[in-house]
Amino acid sequence: MNQRIDVHHVTRVEGHGNIVVEVENGNLKTCRFDVVETPRFFEAMLLGRPYLEASHITSRICGICATGHATASLRASEKALGVELSEQSWLLRKLTFHGEILDSHILHVYMLVAPDFLGVGSVIPLVSTHPDVVLRALRMKKLSGDLCAAITGRHTHPIAMTVGGFTHFPKMAELESLRQRLIESRKDVEATVELFSKLPWPEFERETEYVSLNKADEYAFIDGDIVTTDGVRVPPERYKEVTNEFMVPHSTAKFTRNKRESLMVGALARFNNNYDQLHPKAKEAAAALGMKPKVTNTFLNSAAQVVEIVHSTEDSIQIIEKLLERGIQHEDPAPVKRMPGEGVGVAEVPRGLLIHHYAIGEDGRITAANCIIPTNQNINNLEHDMRAWVPKVMHKPQDAMRLDLEMLVRAYDPCISCSVHVLTIK
Amino acid sequence: MSGNGKPKIAFFDFTSCEGCQLTVVDSLQDHPELLNVVEIVQFREAMTEKGEDYQIAFIEGSCTRESDEARLKKIREQAALVVALGTCAHLSGVNSLKALHPLDEVRRYVYGDKADWYETYDARPIDAVIQVDYAIPGCPIDRNEFIAVVKALLLGKKPPIPDYPVCVECKLKENVCMFTRGKVCLGPVTRAGCGAICPSYGASCEACRGYITNPNDNSMQEVLAKAGLSVEDITSIYTMFTTYQVREKLMQKG
Known about the structure:
- The complex is a heterodimer.
- Chain A is α+β, with helices and mostly antiparallel strands.
- Chain A contains 13 helices and 14 strands.
- By secondary structure, chain B is of the alpha/beta class.
- In chain B, helix 2 links the parallel strand 3 (56-60) and strand 4.
């Protein structure tokens, strides 16, 4: 049996990647996911820039997880400069972060993943065949975008977050309206869980090392220790002990591995490490989706995103209620306590663990920068998954096999624009 | 035109964050009626289908390697109209920040001794490679402006992109001037059309939309110097999105 699959620029993913698979006489000869995105060199771009610009520059790494990059960037500068955030700033940071998790996950599960299960090439034909599903997705996406916009001005490239806090504050009436809309959206969230609990997820088990942030008292999205399902726990400053980057010629993205041949980050890794900290309603959703840690089917990364949609909706409602109760103060950003400094900022962006590491000089300009991106950490694992997945699907007609491989790639929700600029700090 | 008489449009991406294409998706959510009058034949981020018979091409991203030039030229050959979508395509944007350092150093800083594996050159706007008919400025683009431009193109009109500074829109919003708030801001020389969104959210204009045709550069530099900025600081704020234009201007002056 011979098969050759060559998908140039996989569609419905962010950025440019190619699948190359060759099967000869029933044996797997070649199996690669080529990252062909142009290298972008963000770390070098940061050199010499004032630290206050860093979050605005690095949000431009990615249009989908712009808020996540800005957050990790700000945390890196804040750690470097000894800046302590107020309680209100924390609540606002977490709230806008939930907005991005919701926006990105809804985009991924409804518009990028669902078409594969419904046998169409994009969400557009679904407008006539499944109008209720499309309208629900659009309604949910609009709400999450509005949530981000109320706090930071807009979702893609947030404006109002700065080192030490915020430069703009939502009005109480805006928060009240968002609270009501989030409460109303619970029925959409429930319908989402129902829809995805009925999808025939491909059966595929390949256990790997699942890596994420962890906090004792909350489902960690910003700050926390780096933990793995193989028992590793390190503070963010020691990230290199887990990420171990290396380069391969067919990819402009760097690869990572830790205890095993590869590791995985993202919603599934968070679910496996942080199940206990999920909101009770999110745990109910996980049960409906048939998930209990440790889940080792990569395709269920999308289902873990559905669980997080429930969690982020519920936690957003709680945060807004807290803000409404305490009122909004127009605070100046918290002060810088030292200069120069070096700091590591970590966040669990939609696709997984994101690390920004900066050194800031006496003049407030960045002297060294390193960004480690979730998709980078995942591509090595994706190739190992492909090697395990191809023997299960290579007997199928070529088109069906190609779709199976594309679905595996999409399960990772890869964000390839992000993935192509990494370096080792000197 | 396609069989149904709708103009066919296609979206392409080069070096960028793809945030402008996402903004297009958001615009279409607010204006689904647009899909009644155009047919999208290519949009890799959102759909699998690929059609090559488009009349209008929207291009996001800068050109940052020689091997991308052929793809740009092919798009130009096919499309009756080429529109630069967002700052990376229009001005080269943050991608040109790497031009502030020697290219070899940049490559080694990120990829170490494997730098030769990765092709790159100084980032450039797409009109440095092919002729561009119109540009939609902004990082990211403004969704209302995108809709306005598409409507104008469909009617055969010139897209309504303002050529007055952000300050005009900022005053209409009744914002307190950033200079009054003790900050510096590029609003006085930057092209409006964004609704002064950054000052409205407490942040200074960083000139992501590029400069108006006749900016009062001398006064601007005086104002910045008066605000206590060194030449280095001034260069810094002028280069965030417009390094490519600043360098072109310096080269023209010799």
